[in-house]
Specification:
Distance between the termini: 19 Å
Number of domains: 2
Strand content: over 45%
CATH architecture of the largest domain: Sandwich
Order of helices and strands: EEEEEEEEEEEEEEEEEEEE
CATH class of the largest domain: Mainly Beta
Helix content: under 10%
Number of strands: 20
CATH topology of the largest domain: Jelly Rolls
Number of helices: 0
Structural class: mainly beta
Shape: globular
């Protein structure tokens, strides 16, 4: 088993006034040659957007883009004609494929929007762009990891063009959990949204993360009530 630990305070940080963003991997003005990506996981941005502000229309191509709102209302518009609001408890996916433009705006009048912006390299390029979003209520499980993303359109959660699986957990203290990998060549990147967990001889607190690969499963114990995002992605050829 191999591992890499990324502490919250080691992330890149950019505060533009309207946008306060922490970058787990190299992004925009933040560059670290040791932190370009974790396998197929290219971007993990932890964004806070001021009321009434947001990202104007901008292009993407050949990237799987996932947004997970944590607080507030985020309005999405794109060149495919989609207009939608995503909120805490939702997950959104956009396959950029041959090319798409979109905007993301905070429609919360008096408060901030907080969301995770995640980019994943696809395993198939130049696909027809598509958009989807779902509420996680239909797949939510109490005090368990539950799947929110996979490569299978008929499976739980949203799907993407990559052999990747995301699990979300709202976990109680003094519990133990095991995550079994789907593919031998994959790795797991665990991001702690809040709380405190221990895994692979490491203790992780809010916004800490650990990447683990060359293993069949990971085990972790929850020391304080915690919210975690477990992202399994291919490690080879990326």
């Amino acid at each position: 088993m191999k591992k890499i630990v990324h502490r919250a305070e080691s992330r890149g940080h950019a505060n533009h006034g309207w946008l306060d963003s922490h970058h787990t991997f190299s992004f925009a003005g933040y560059y670290d040659p040791e932190r370009i990506h974790f396998g197929a996981l290219r971007v993990l941005n932890d964004d806070t957007v001021a009321a009434g502000r947001g990202f104007g229309a901008h292009p993407h191509q050949n990237m799987e883009i996932v947004s997970i709102p944590l607080e507030g209302d985020l309005e999405h518009r794109d060149s495919m004609g989609n207009v939608a609001i995503i909120r805490k408890g939702d997950i959104q996916v956009m396959s950029a494929g041959t090319g798409v433009q979109h905007s993301e705006m905070n429609r919360t009048k008096n408060g901030e929007v907080k969301f995770l912006q995640i980019w994943i390299f696809p395993n198939t390029e130049n696909v027809e762009p598509r958009y989807d979003q779902i509420s996680l209520e239909s797949v939510r499980k109490e005090n368990e990891l539950f799947q929110i993303l996979s490569p299978d359109a008929n499976d739980a959660g949203v799907w993407i063009h990559q052999n990747a699986w995301f699990n979300w957990g709202e976990l109680k203290s003094d519990t133990n959990h095991t995550y079994k990998l789907h593919n031998a060549g994959n790795g797991v990147y665990v991001f702690v949204l809040s709380g405190k967990i221990s895994t692979s001889n490491e203790t992780l607190t809010t916004r800490d993360a650990i990447g683990i690969w060359e293993t069949d499963e990971i085990e972790f114990s929850v020391e304080d009530d915690s919210v975690v995002l477990v992202m399994e992605v291919p490690m080879e050829n990326y």
